[in-house]
Structure prediction request, 691 residues.
Amino acid sequence: MSTLTQKANSIESKVTSNTTTINNLSGSVTSLQSDMSDVKQTASSITSTVSSMKDEIIGENCMLGLNGQGWSSNTIYEDAGTSFHCESTDWFQSHPIADFSGDYTFSFGVWGGGIQIKILEFTQTYYDDGIYNKYVDFGTYTPCKILTTSSSVSNATLTNYATSGTSSTWTYTNTETITLAVGDNVAVRVTNSTNSRYNSIYGTVSAINTSSKSVTVKAIKLLDQPNTICTLSCPTDKKDGTDINSLHYDEKLGRWWIRFKESSGAAKTFVILFRNPSTSIIGYISRLMIEESVEYPHKYNSTGQASQSMIKQTAESIMISVNDTYVKIGDGNITLNGETKVNGSLTLNDEDQGFLLLGDSGTTEISPKSIGTYNEFKSKTTNTIKTHFNSTIYGSPTVDGALYGFSWNVSQKLGTFKKGSYINLIDYTNVAFANVGTLQYSIGTPSATFYIHENGTLTKTITVGDKTSVDIGNYTVVGDNVEVMVTGRFTKNVSASIWGTSQDILSPRDTNITIQPIKPMPSISVTVDWKNEVPTASAFMLIGYDGFAVNFGNNKTVYCGADGFIASYGINEFKITSDGIWRNNHPNIKVLKGTDNRNSPATYTVQEPVDTVLCVGNYCKIIFPPNPYEGQTFRILDKALEETYINSNGKKLVNHKTGGDGKVLSLDYLGGQVFWTYVYIDGRWYESAES
Prediction:
């Protein structure tokens, strides 16, 4: 049908068609399809729309648009054809889906409780009678009656039983009436004790004893159980992304979905199973839909797959859409909504152009500009909070009056941080002067102790002492999303003699009042400064024309550019530049506290990154690295009061005194409380001692 409508302000043309496909043999409807094209023109816009709606009815071989029809009846109740609820922990399963190849996306709705999903794949092809037992895969053989037994047999024994032509007799445990005849095919399901799988002896019935429920089978083949692609639970196994064989949830669609693919290399059919993990909760499953070769599920449509494309042009914009995917040009922007693929080159010429990939926890920038120097990039990854304190502090005399004690606190709130965030406290200075009349005298550096609190709870104490122009230390946040505050406590005792008797006397203005004159309290002027380096709130990656650099949002930076390759993680740094390879050589230390028992010393096997072992206490034992590499080096500082033993872990050790070919040591002891260094070269450990 076609129509043309002309009005004073618009012209509209429309063409529609409807197609019904009928099975010539059964007379049943197999598909319904409606197509329409519509063009509407006004003075301000032109809109062209083409739509198609197709409801494919492939019977038991497809779930799309069938609202769960074809599922097993085990503990399933159908609610108006759109949802199921299950009330037991027994599995119920879909009818098998044939021609299994590529990847599939299965989407569904869940509410009311947790649901467990399992997807099985079979090497057997699709059969109209739908015999797909979750414990038996018939492969190329015709499905038949399955008998279950309580027997548990090793894999070798099962293999012998299943050798073609071999006869064996089995007592089956099926509670239902089994109708068999001599000559029928049967699969006897037996537990394989070797791998805890179910195997089935497939063969021909040669004898039957109905009273004892025993059957003699002449074997044809040993069958395995179907392969499990994945077993997942809602909502505990939910994750982001589009990973294969993983469970996802889309908030926009309000649907759970699993993308899966054939994994055995020979699968031809799959089935999907659901169950309740607990009988105390009723779980509901609704709006089942399965799609082939899509990375992401489409919107559910109870009448089938509907598709529509549209082009709309106005003086200000152009809109092109296919269902929920669209391109909009206008307002100085081009907006893409949907997965985008580029076949060919995409050229960006301006440094201000590029790609910004915005995630919940960070940003990736791809731009035709330089990443800059290492210091320039690192300055983007940390914030520096400066702490400055300047004040006059008054003291209190000691009991004997010989000293005046001064104390004060300086606090700095740093903000809220995630667990593992790295904070560096640097460039600490503290200057103090005694105020004597109009003069000031240096009194040395006050003693300092710093306290770090998370949400008001003390988590670390750093003692600096009477030092200035030093770094305070570093701190790794313990809690998650906690407010961090640093407080410095400063003290200084000053000799009272510095003020002498030259201080002014504070006397009452009224001479008739007889109050003892008061000396003013001695005071000092102090200035305290330090810097707090804290990580930026989010991760950041920059890819430019001359390298890449990454900030992981936690004082962790990796840079590869003109300055070289530099990896910095907290206080640890590694560099590869034109000048060579360098790391800041912070030792990785293991402290081993010995026991009091000679026969049971404290034992440690050297593992990377540990390169220095300190032995204290009494009896210790050090086992060398199990798989040393050429040039590996580690040191032992023996400060144990009793023996420290060494074990060369199967490698020869060349003694620092004797030399020679060396020998394997299982239990030898170090001769003195010194530094022992071991270097692995050419299959041997070489020892040296530092006095």
In short: The chain has five domains: 1-65+301-337, 66-124+228-292, 145-225, 382-502+517-535, 589-690. The domain at 382-502+517-535 is CATH 2.60.120 (Jelly Rolls). Helices lie at 155-161, 374-378.
